Amino acid sequence: MHSSFDSIEQPIVRLQQVTKTIGRRTIIDGLTLDLPRAEVFGFLGPNGSGKTTTIRMMVGLMSLTKGDVLIEGHSIRTDYEQAIRHVGAIVENPEMYKYLTGFQNLLHFSRMVPGITRQRIDEVVELVGLKSRINDKVKTYSLGMRQRLGVAQAIMHKPTLLILDEPTNGLDPAGIRELRDYLRKLAKEEGITVFVSSHLLSEMELMCDRVAIIQAGKLIDVRSIRSDKPLGEESSQVLFEVDQPDKAVLLLAEHGAEREEDAALVRADRETIAQINASLVAAGIKVYGIRVLNKSLEDQFLEMTGGEQVV
Amino acid sequence: MFDFLQLVRNENMKIYRRIGTWIMLGIILLLVIVSSSLTRWLSEKETMWTVMNGIDQLMYYLITIFTVVISAESVAGEFSSGTIKLLLIRPWSRSKILLSKYISLLLFALVQTLLMFVSSFVLNLILFGYNDSATANEALGVLNSAHPFFYMIQAYVLDYIGLIMIVTFSFMLSTIFRSGGLAIGLSMFIYFFGLIASGILMSLKYKWVEYLLFLHLNLKQYLQSSEIAHHMTLGFSLAVLAGYYIIFIGVTWLIFNKRDVAT
Lengths: 311, 263
Hints:
The structure holds 2 protein chains of 2 kinds.
Chain A: H1 4-9, E1 13-22, E2 25-35, E3 40-44, H2 51-58, E4 66-71, E5 74-75, H3 80-84, E6 87-90, H4 102-110, H5 118-127, H6 143-155, E7 161-165, H7 173-190, E8 193-198, H8 201-207, E9 210-215, E10 218-224, E11 236-242, H9 245-251, E12 258-260, E13 263-268, H10 270-282, E14 287-293, H11 297-304
Parallel strand pairs in A: 3-8, 3-9, 6-7, 7-8
Antiparallel strand pairs in A: 1-2, 1-4, 4-5, 9-10, 11-13, 11-14, 12-13
Chain B: H1 2-16, H2 19-42, H3 48-81, H4 83-88, H5 94-128, H6 136-140, H7 148-177, H8 180-203, E1 227-228, E2 232-233, H9 234-258
Antiparallel strand pairs in B: 1-2
Helix pairs in contact in B: 1-5, 2-3, 2-5, 3-5, 3-7, 3-8, 5-7, 7-8, 7-9
Transmembrane segments (chain B): 21-38, 58-81, 102-129, 149-177, 189-208, 228-256
Pfam families (chain B): ABC2_membrane_4 (PF12730)
Organism (chain B): Paenibacillus taihuensis
């Protein structure tokens, strides 16, 4: 076992050069990715980009052609039972045994991991709000209820990593919101890492701390969404609304300024913004407003994937 | 070991929480009751042993069908419902999960066999009274000198060995095709076609005929003679069955362990 120091410092999951080849087609190509602890980590990509395949490899449903996945330091290839112990997952739809009741389904999965008490099952049922229907057969459940039952079986054994594949599929807006709040709570309060895949950009923006973007089986980028770091570490597009935009653009040429209607658009970090503002004012240009343009993830995503059709 | 029994409990739960299973068990019990009672009221000559033997001869096929149905669904059902994904992502190797399924199927075949044996014995004992024939030959007219009760036990044991083969075969098909319907259909076809064809095949003089699976599924014929056509003995039949068994099990486990779950 690892010392507690190790487990705090180490990323909870390491994907190392994960590759999947089926026939001659390379579906996942050398994916390397570390997931930090206690974050909601999004896995974003258009349909068919390899999200589900990656997730299936992470939980051992598919074999890896090359590379390895380490969960809490245990290899999914050589030490599967130890690695998967820390994982709770829903892969695609939460398919349960329809002819069993919700409770029997949970009982079934609880028997497969030592140490889950009847009390824990009740606790989880309460948590996902299925108490009144838990003794009904799953075939009578709505999709939202099945999703909640799916979450219940995934968190029952107190995993440190929760993997959810397209969890918002088929949920109504209220259900999505509920799930989103719940996942954030799990990450913040219980220290669980939540790895969630989606092709819905707007969803990811609201839900995740960080997003990995995948396209055609390759990792394109990892972006922080909710950067808790002070603004300015990354430069962003800043719009200076001024009375003389032409003069301002000329003045800010060294910053690569562009004219945008009644404003000058520059790329700048926090400190530079202040400097630019000072120099504009010094040059006698009236500054009416400074706006940092936070590009939505969708813009970034489309930019990176070359505007390829998503959804 | 205790934990592994939990897996078997799970598989049992999935068999016995289905209404279909209880209908099957109900049909077995009902047919035993109906056939025994009818014989009691319509025939004067029969004894508890003859009726019990008759029930075994006929209803064994029914048990075979029921066993095939449940076995064929065992793995395929998990794939078609998608539950295989949630089943496999647990701290258990695929081999052990598969083993728990296989054991639960052998138990189901045993439950049916025992149900038929006990119900037909007890019921016919009540209906016809105890028949004190000393040998199976006297009681049933078969070429066997064991006590009729032990004769029946031997018949059921040999039946059960046949059931094990059928369970293993349809379990393999279920794993290969991941389709319950196909596994049921194919198992039934091969089994019943084999039964019918075995008579014809048996008359062929070729040596390879002796190694065909179907010729060895009806082990009860050895109760009447230690050697059947082609000079085959019980030992030879069991050895052939063991060979097939190892192949079936090997293929099943290999495929289940290697397969990417992509449904």
